[in-house]
């Protein structure tokens, strides 16, 4: 499933840690995620690898924002989970697909979740090299 949050971080050994384990580990900063329940924790994992780039930072890859008929009941409070990560982040990259001009309810929720943390947000216009200049101006 693509409905998964993945924390990518440094470790001397390459390993994948399931969300349930990560959320109770004293060595990882994810204890607060227990509040979101089993459904969320089953869709969270930590991927650790030996890469010097990761020694001083952690990436959190969130699942894609769903639109229209693709919207599903995730089984956990997506907005609260996003908020939890945003509050602990130094930088948030919000990728916006230049091919999709509509903003779904879930995308609106994600944007509202960023309120109060606007200084951390950078918007990336994804796939903008694949559209004409006229279409880019509309976006």
TrEMBL record:
Top-level lineage group: Eukaryota
Protein name: Uncharacterized protein
């Amino acid at each position: 499933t693509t409905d998964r949050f993945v924390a990518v971080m440094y470790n001397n050994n390459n390993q994948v840690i399931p969300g349930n384990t990560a959320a109770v580990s004293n060595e990882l900063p994810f204890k607060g995620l227990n509040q979101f329940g089993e459904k969320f924790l089953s869709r969270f994992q930590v991927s650790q690898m030996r890469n010097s780039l990761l020694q001083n930072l952690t990436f959190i890859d969130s699942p894609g924002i769903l639109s229209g008929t693709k919207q599903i009941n995730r089984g956990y409070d997506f907005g609260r989970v996003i908020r939890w990560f945003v509050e602990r982040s130094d930088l948030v990259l919000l990728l916006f697909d230049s091919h999709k001009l509509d903003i779904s309810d879930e995308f609106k929720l994600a944007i509202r979740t960023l309120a109060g943390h606007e200084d951390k947000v950078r918007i990336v216009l994804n796939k903008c090299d694949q559209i004409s200049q006229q279409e880019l101006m509309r976006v």
